[in-house]
C-alpha cells in the first residue's frame, strides 16, 4: 500500500482492502478495496448480478470473507458475526423487504435498538425523518404500502444510531417523490451524525443526488472510482450502467 493510501485507510471510518468472497466454490467479489470517511456517502453502482449485494452481505458478516480485510475505525471486523456487527455500530438495510409483516411498526423498530427504552428516546429521529411512520406506530407492518415499508426499514437503521450504514437499493420500486425524500434523509443523516454510508444502487440520478464518491462494480471487481462532481463522472457512469 502506498503511504497516501495508508493515511487514507487510517483516518477512514470503513476501510476495505483486497476483499474477496462468494458462495461455496464460486468467488463473486474479487480483491475489492475502498474506504469511506465519517460523514461521507460512497455509492457502489453496477448492473444486475455484479456482486453488489454480495459485497454488503460480506461486510455485515452474513457471508465469509475468503481474503482481505474490513476495518471499522481501524478495528478488524472481517468475519465477525452479523449480530455483533449490529450491536457494534453497523446497520444493514437489505434489498429484499426485511420487515416482520405480523409485528407492528413499533415492534419492528424495537428490533433496531439494543435495549427497551432506547426507542422512546430515539422516536424523534423517526418523526424527523418519516413522520408517516411515526404516526403508524401501532399498525401491523404488513399493512404498510411498499414505499412505507422501505421507510420503516430505513427508520430501523436510523434508530440504531450506527457509525456505518449499509443500504441495498433502497430506491428500487419507489415513486420519484419518495426517492427524493430518501435522498434528503440520507444527506441529513451523514451531515448531522457523521454517519458513513455505503449505498448500493442502480438508480443513477438518485445516486448522484446523494453520494460524494462512486465506485463501479463489474463482475465482482471495482473498475472505476471517483468523485461524483469530477468532470466526466456522469458520462463514465452512464457508459458503465448501459444495458
Ligand atoms: N445464495 C447464492 N448462491 C450462489 N450464488 C449466488 C447466491 N446469491 C447470489 N449469487 C450469485 O452471485 C452473483 C452476484 O449476485 P448479487 O446478488 O451480489 O448481485 P447484485 O449486484 O446485488 O445484483 P442485483 O442488482 O440484481 O441485486 C450472481 O451471479 C448471483 O447469481
Ligand atoms: Mg443486489
Describe this structure in words.
This protein is of the alpha/beta class. It folds into two domains: 3-89 and 162-241, P-loop containing nucleotide triphosphate hydrolases (Rossmann fold); 96-161, no CATH class. The chain contains ten helices and ten strands. The strands form two sheets. A six-stranded mixed beta sheet has the order 6-7-8-3-9-10, sandwiched between helices. The protein has a four-stranded antiparallel beta sheet with strand order 2-1-4-5. Strand 9 and strand 10 (221-227) form a beta hairpin. Helix 8 (176-193) runs parallel beside helix 9 (204-210). The longest helix is centred in the C-terminal third of the chain and has 18 residues, at 176-193. The chain is globular and about 45 Å long. The two termini are 35 Å apart. The mean pLDDT is 92. Bound molecules: adenosine-5'-triphosphate and magnesium ion. The site of magnesium ion has 4 residues, from helix 2.
Task: Please write out the topology.
Blueprint lengths: L2 H9 L2 E10 L2 E11 L4 E5 L6 H9 L4 E8 L2 E2 L5 H6 L2 E4 L11 H6 L7 H12 L1 H4 L11 H14 L4 E5 L7 H18 L2 E6 L2 H7 L2 E6 L2 E7 L5 H9 L2
Parallel strand pairs: 3-8, 3-9, 6-7, 7-8
Antiparallel strand pairs: 1-2, 1-4, 4-5, 9-10
Helix pairs in contact: 8-9
The structure holds adenosine-5'-triphosphate and magnesium ion.
The CATH H-level superfamily of the largest domain is P-loop containing nucleotide triphosphate hydrolases
Order of helices and strands: HEEEHEEHEHHHHEHEHEEH
Structural domain count? 2
- Termini separation: 35 Å
Number of helices: 10
Strand adjacency order, main sheet: 6-7-8-3-9-10
Hetero ligands: adenosine-5'-triphosphate, magnesium ion
Low-confidence parts: none
Amino acid at each position: 500500500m502506498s503511504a497516501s493510501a495508508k493515511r487514507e485507510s487510517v483516518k477512514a471510518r470503513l476501510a476495505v482492502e483486497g476483499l474477496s468472497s462468494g458462495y461455496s466454490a464460486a468467488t463473486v467479489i474479487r480483491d475489492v478495496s475502498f474506504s469511506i470517511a465519517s460523514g461521507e456517502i460512497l455509492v457502489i453502482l453496477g448492473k444486475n448480478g455484479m456482486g453488489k449485494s454480495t459485497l454488503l452481505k460480506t461486510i455485515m458478516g452474513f457471508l465469509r470473507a475468503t481474503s482481505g480485510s474490513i476495518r471499522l475505525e481501524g478495528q478488524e471486523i472481517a468475519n465477525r458475526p452479523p449480530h455483533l456487527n449490529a450491536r457494534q455500530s453497523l446497520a444493514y438495510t437489505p434489498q429484499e423487504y426485511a420487515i416482520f409483516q405480523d409485528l407492528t411498526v413499533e415492534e419492528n423498530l424495537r428490533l433496531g435498538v439494543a435495549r427497551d427504552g432506547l426507542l422512546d428516546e430515539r422516536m424523534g429521529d423517526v418523526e424527523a425523518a418519516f413522520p408517516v411512520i411515526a404516526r403508524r406506530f401501532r399498525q401491523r407492518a404488513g399493512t404498510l404500502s411498499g414505499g412505507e415499508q422501505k421507510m420503516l426499514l430505513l427508520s430501523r437503521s436510523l434508530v440504531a444510531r450506527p457509525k456505518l450504514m449499509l443500504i441495498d437499493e433502497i430506491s428500487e420500486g419507489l415513486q420519484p417523490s419518495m426517492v427524493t425524500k430518501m435522498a434528503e434523509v440520507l444527506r441529513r443523516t451523514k451531515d448531522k451524525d457523521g454517519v458513513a454510508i455505503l449505498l448500493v444502487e442502480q438508480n443513477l440520478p438518485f445516486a448522484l443526488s446523494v453520494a460524494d464518491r462512486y465506485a463501479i462494480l463489474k463482475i465482482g471487481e471495482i473498475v472505476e472510482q471517483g468523485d461524483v462532481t469530477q468532470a466526466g463522472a456522469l458520462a463514465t457512469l452512464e457508459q458503465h450502467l448501459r444495458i
